């Protein structure tokens, strides 16, 4: 099962509140999925529609959906 540690839960809450997630924070969450780490940068790139190195809540949702489809 995919679950967030206490620290990652705080990052997720901040993302929801402020609608912004830095790349390293998103990658840390995505790595918890157990998905092959070599796939994660491509998923991130597809989700980061404006290519600004940060994910809005909509972009995060896209990435999370792709990860769930592959796990």
Describe, in plain words, how this protein is organized in 3D.
The mean pLDDT is 83. Helix 3 (40-47) packs antiparallel against helix 4 (57-70). The protein has helices spanning 6-18, 23-31, 40-47, 57-70, and strands at residues 21-22, 54-55. The radius of gyration is 11 Å and the shape is globular. Strands 1-2 form a two-stranded antiparallel sheet. It is built from four helices and two strands; from the N terminus they run H-E-H-H-E-H. With 71 residues, it is mainly alpha-helical.
Topology diagram in text:
Blueprint: H1 6-18, E1 21-22, H2 23-31, H3 40-47, E2 54-55, H4 57-70
Antiparallel strand pairs: 1-2
Helix pairs in contact: 3-4
N-to-C CA distance: 10 Å
Cα shape: globular
Number of helices: 4
| Helix-residue proportion | 55-70%
Question: What composes the largest sheet?
Answer: 2 strands, antiparallel
Report the order of strands and helices: HEHHEH
Rg over C-alpha atoms, rounded to the nearest angstrom: 11 Å
Q: pLDDT average, as an integer?
A: 83
Strand sequence of the main sheet, in spatial order?
1-2
How much of the sequence lies in strands comes to 5-15%
Strand elements, count: 2
Short description:
By secondary structure, this protein is mostly helical.
